[in-house]
């Protein structure tokens, strides 16, 4: 199989693809003969690319056929045209890459068989990946056994909390005694102020006697 590549041809890719579809799969000698009678600009360029591909493989045109004729989009040249009222309109001049592959019918069969081998490799890789995931999932539950032991130690910890209850009972028992003592103390202090007003009653009586005199 041999190939030829023509780059940056001044032909629109959409126009060149119309010719490439007609030629693809044809015998090289028949394709060259048919392209000579086509008036399109792309026909002359594609015929030269086919002749170059045949010469690169040192074949005879009647021995080989066109395996693929591909037209790719290349750079686009931008130009401007003056229009009314000082404005300008844009002009696009596209270019394309032409790739022609030429070979015998046997080469075509080998080219079709090659992608099937690649699919098998991808399937083998896909089968290996789930196996790794399953082993990772199986290994994960072993690590979960440790938290259970921690949870059991946490449940056993509340047994030590019995001591604070005894302290709380002693505090509650001591608190009422202190309150009773505090209530008794104010009672003795309140009795002394009650005797003081009795002494002040005598002067009030003297004032009343003076007023009567």
Q: How would you describe this structure in keywords?
A:
single chain; 213 residues; alpha+beta; Ribosomal Protein L22, Chain A; three-stranded antiparallel sheet; 7 helices; 3 strands; elongated
CATH superfamily caption of the domain at 2-81 and 89-103? Ribosomal protein L22/L17
User: What is the radius of gyration?
Assistant: 55 Å
CATH class of the domain at 2-81 and 89-103: Alpha Beta
Q: What oligomeric assembly is this protein in?
A: single chain
Q: Mind describing the biggest β-sheet? A: 3 strands, antiparallel
Number of helices: 7
Strand arrangement within the widest β-sheet reads: 1-3-2
SSE order: EHHHEEHHHH
CATH architecture grouping of the domain at 2-81 and 89-103: Alpha-Beta Complex
The tally of beta strands, per DSSP, is 3
| Content of β-strand | 15-25%
Derived structural class? alpha+beta
